[in-house]
Design goal:
Blueprint: H1 18-27, E1 33-35, H2 48-51, E2 64-66, H3 71-84, E3 88-91, E4 108-111, E5 118-122, E6 127-131, H4 136-143, E7 148-149, H5 162-168, H6 175-178, H7 181-184, E8 185-191, E9 197-199, H8 214-217, E10 226-233, E11 235-236, E12 240-248, H9 254-265, E13 269-276, H10 277-285, H11 294-297, E14 302-310, H12 313-329, E15 337-340, H13 344-355, H14 357-364, E16 366-373, H15 379-392, E17 401-409, E18 414-421, H16 426-432, H17 435-442, H18 467-480
Helix pairs in contact: 1-3, 10-14
The protein binds flavin-adenine dinucleotide, (2R)-2-hydroxypentanedioic acid and zinc ion.
Zinc ion binds next to strand 17.
Length: about 500
């Protein structure tokens, strides 16, 4: 059951038919065409995974999934779809959280999964050029022997693709250290909505030759073209990493703690991640990382994960230990305890608690996700106000809303407010929206910090962008995609 509150109907678009399949057969090998239409005639269940999103909240009705192997094949498909006016949904790992990667109706799904080769890596400059369909984790594995890392990391790394990351401008767990993809992506290869291939992959690191067109595709969520290749600046792998989970008696301590941690760890600080007590409990309940001891979590209202990445283990350990001592010995300690990883396994376990929250929530129930930018000082207030609001509506009960939790990237001012319910229902939806968006707007925040607009937030864009900005977004969309075939109904209504 789709709960999309949007009435978008791509009425001017055509459905894929058997003649189209015959044409695609001339472009692609048979194994690259999955379709319920003749002559392929697969059962719908064979393509259900492409029609349903990661949360199982948004459901498309596509009949056909194409899995090209080359940029030329993508171009030939898009050219045909442009002439025939068939809507196309580019799809990467399908881990997006705003319904952007699945069709609204029966648009064709163009899945990048077969374009999964590293094209080149230069260990001197650190420039990696890869097909868009490369899975993020496989790029990390490729770079490890070259002592480099992808400047991006997120919990979905085992499934998401670099092209999907670029198209959502994914933030994730390393943004604090390495900045956004707007900085680290050096060039893109894109198939434009008329099938033209725009290649900027050979861009050097410094390139001020006029308008920087690639920036438009970073975060465009597939509405302006299909990213087929990515050139990205990999970072030198840190020689030493460590992490610690800090238990805080009250949320109000997070802000002064962040200031203190930044001051003391300075150049070796690589992550500062926040999760409230309930998020922690859900994560360990569903087997994500080893639970802390009762003593360690006693009296803790929330937790902060601090990661260090530096050049010399002894130096970094000394800094981390000095930080912990000073925090614990202060007159009014900001933390109750700090558990430092003593082994690679413990390091991974501490990260698993934080990275596993999203998955544990999906095991606990259906998630309403609000990925918002607000002032750090307001994180708790917004979570509490949302919970109180649901309570006042009588919705805080086991068969409706089970939990309201907050976690996220404190260093970037990005809160993940998650409302975990027994089911997606119109009643809960109406209680949450526009309530949450108005709250965000009252703090001059963003209704989408890092996940994008997709289908979920097209109607909420105006809470964060004024009419002049939206108008120019529309003009850009019209310029690139006058026939409206590229990911219709996403980002802009
Ligand atoms: P998809 O879900 O397939 O697509 C996402 C959007 O990009 C869609 O609009 C799609 O049409 C478009 N798209 C995909 N590939 C292309 C392409 N090649 N060309 C053009 N358009 C394309 N996000 C964060 O920012 N930070 C996080 O920390 C984070 N953690 C996550 C953890 C989990 C467990 C999950 C499930 C998701 C998380 N996300 C996070 C959401 C995030 O948006 C995605 O994980 C990721 O960036 C999407 O990549 P994907 O390949 O799965 O793209
Ligand atoms: C994270 O930071 C992701 O873990 C997912 O961005 C957030 O599930 C969410 O709301
Ligand atoms: Zn996040």
């Amino acid at each position: 059951r789709s709960l999309a509150t949007h009435s978008f109907t791509p009425s001017t678009l055509n459905s894929v038919n058997a003649d189209d399949i015959a044409h695609f057969s001339k472009i692609l090998s048979p194994s690259s065409i999955l379709s319920t239409l003749p002559p392929v005639s697969l059962p719908p269940s064979d393509i259900a995974g492409f029609n349903n999103d990661w949360m199982n909240k948004y459901h498309g009705k596509s009949t056909t999934v194409l899995r090209p192997r080359t940029t030329q094949e993508v171009s030939d498909i898009v050219k045909w779809c442009s002439e025939r006016r068939i809507g196309i949904v580019p799809q990467g790992g399908n881990t997006g959280l705003v319904g952007g990667g699945v069709p609204v109706q029966d648009e064709l799904i163009l899945s990048l999964g077969n374009m999964n080769k590293v094209r080149s890596f230069d260990p001197v400059s650190g420039i990696l050029v890869a097909d868009a369909g490369c899975i993020l984790e496989s790029l990390s594995e490729y770079l490890a022997p070259h002592s480099h890392i992808v400047p991006l990391d997120l919990g979905a790394k085992g499934s998401c693709q670099i092209g999907g990351n670029v198209s959502t401008n994914a933030g994730g767990l390393r943004l604090l250290r390495y900045g956004s993809l707007h900085g680290s992506v050096l060039g893109l290869e894109v198939v434009l909505p008329d099938g033209t291939i725009m290649n900027q992959l050979s861009s050097p690191r410094k390139d001020n030759t006029g308008y920087d067109l690639k920036q438009l595709f970073i975060g465009a969520e597939g509405t302006l073209g299909i990213v087929t290749g990515v050139s990205i600046l990999a970072a030198p792998a840190p020689q030493a990493t460590n992490n610690v989970v800090l238990a805080l008696p009250r949320f109000e301590n997070v802000l002064p703690l962040f200031v203190e941690v930044k001051k003391q760890l300075s150049e070796i600080l690589s992550a500062f991640e926040f999760f409230d007590r309930r998020s922690y409990e859900l994560s360990v309940r569903h087997g994500q990382g080893r639970a802390l001891s009762g003593e360690e979590i006693e009296g803790a209202e929330c937790f902060v994960l601090v990661e260090t990445s530096g050049g010399k283990r002894e130096h970094d350990e000394e800094k981390l230990n000095t930080l912990l001592e000073s925090l614990l010995e202060a007159d009014q300690p900001l933390i109750n305890t700090g558990v430092v990883a003593q082994s690679p396994a413990q390091f991974a376990s501490i990260w698993a608690i934080r990275e596993g929250i999203t998955e544990s929530i999906s095991k606990e129930g259906k998630a309403y996700k609000y990925d918002i930018s607000i002032p750090l000082a307001k994180f708790k207030e917004v979570v509490d106000m949302t919970r109180d609001h649901l309570q006042s509506k009588g919705l805080l009960r086991d068969d409706a809303v089970r939990h309201v939790v907050g976690y996220g990237h404190v260093g970037d001012g990005n809160l993940h407010l998650n409302v975990v319910a027994a089911d997606y229902t119109p009643e809960i939806q109406a209680a949450l929206e526009p309530f949450v968006y108005e709250l965000v707007a009252s703090h001059k925040g963003s209704v989408s910090a890092e996940h994008g607009i997709g289908l979920m937030k097209t109607h909420a864009l105006h809470y964060s962008k004024d009419s002049v900005n939206i108008e120019w977004m529309r003009k850009i969309k019209q310029l690139f995609d006058p026939r409206g075939i590229m990911n219709p109904g996403k980002v802009l209504e």
